[in-house]
Design a protein that fits this description.
The protein is mostly helical. The protein contains five helices and no strands. The chain has one domain: Hemerythrin-like (Four Helix Bundle (Hemerythrin (Met), subunit A), Up-down Bundle), CATH 1.20.120. Helix 2 runs antiparallel to helix 3. The longest helix is centred in the middle third of the chain and has 28 residues. Bound molecules: fe (ii) ion (FE2) (2 copies). One fe (ii) ion binds next to helix 3 and helix 5.
Length: about 130
């Protein structure tokens, strides 16, 4: 479900590779949602969201450095979008996630799908 499609490539190799990794993490969440043999998925959800947060922080930092290196004029509004994403990951309700895991995963997938695709196609694309 989640994979780098041709239209997501920006032509900046480092950023493309990092975006690819983000899609891989999203794909792990998708595979987890399909797995009917794991009755309690909470630990896996925690792991995936942890990886996602760690990698996203790394990617945003490297993307912001890249934008600064080319003096990109929309740096601040772009950075704000990044901050909102991290804030969302910082404000997860773990009790809620543990209680209703299926709903939690499906919300995470929806959020990732929207965010990754829109952000890369509309916001990231502006720096190339
Ligand atoms: Fe970005
Ligand atoms: Fe990006």
């Amino acid at each position: 479900m989640f994979e780098m499609k041709d239209e997501y490539y920006l032509g900046v190799e480092e950023m493309d590779l990092e975006h690819k990794r983000l899609f891989e993490i999203a794909e792990e969440a998708y595979q987890l949602s399909k797995d009917e043999f794991v009755p309690d998925k909470f630990d896996y959800i925690v792991k995936i969201l942890g990886d996602l947060k760690e990698y996203t922080i790394f990617h945003f930092d490297s993307e912001e450095k890249y934008m600064q290196s080319i003096s990109h004029k929309m740096f601040f509004s772009h950075k704000l979008e990044h901050q909102e994403f991290i804030e969302k990951l910082n404000n997860l309700d773990w009790n809620e996630i543990e209680k209703d895991q299926d709903r939690a995963i499906s919300e995470i997938l929806k959020f990732l799908n929207n965010w990754l695709v829109n952000h890369i196609l509309y916001t990231d694309k502006k720096y190339v």
